[in-house]
Amino acid sequence: MAFSSGTQSGAPMSEINVTPLVDVMLVLLIIFMITAPLMSHKIKVELPKANLEHRPDKVPPAPPVTVTVTEDGSLYWNDAPVTHDQLESQLSVAAQATPQPEVNIRGDETTKYRIISDVVNTAQLQGIAKVGFVATKERH
After folding, report:
1. 65-134: which CATH architecture?
2. For residues 84 and 70, what is the distance between their CA atoms, to the nearest angstrom?
3. Mean pLDDT of the chain
4. What is the rounded end-to-end Cα distance, in angstroms, of the chain?
């Protein structure tokens, strides 16, 4: 707190006392000088060098596969009608492809969840890693 410097007016001092600020800064400097050498690694490891000239060609992602399920349980593989057994065999072939395509499931609004769940389980049992759902965005 700043007090009067003895003048007759009794007004507070308008000068800032920087001595405590300098003291704190010196203490922080000493602390950082002591702790900085401790942060170095004691175990030396030869890290591998990055070589960007000899990058393997990145494989483009496979186009996604769309499985459509209608209200009556009809199945479509990329808009072509299939049976459940054909869907299972095509999912098995798609699971063996490199890179593996995503499987997007489009279900009718009134399709029973049991049918959608059956298609998802079939895809997962055949080894498909990415199974997603397609929906329309709500309009306000």
Report:
1. 2-Layer Sandwich (3.30)
2. 13
3. 86
4. 60
Note the pLDDT tens digit of each residue in 32-84: 888 887 777 677 878 778 776 766 667 788 899 999 999 999 999 999 999 99
Number of helices (H) and strands (E) in the chain: give both, helices first: 3, 5
Which H/E stretch holds residue 27? Answer: helix 19-35
The DSSP 8-state label assigned to residue 131 in this structure reads E
| Residue 91 burial by Cβ neighbours in a 10 Å radius (0-12, 13-18, 19+) | buried
Residue pLDDT, tens place only, 88-127: 999 999 999 988 999 999 998 899 999 999 999 999 999 9
**Residue entry with tokens 């170095």:** 40
Contact 3, 12 (CB under 8 A): yes
Model pTM score: 0.57
Picking from 105, 87, 100, the residue whose alpha carbon sits closest to that of residue 127 is: 100
pLDDT confidence of residue 43: 75
Contact between residue 131 and residue 124 where contact means Cβ atoms under 8 Å apart: yes
Written in H, E and C, the secondary structure of 101-125 is: CCEEEEECCCCCHHHHHHHHHHHHH
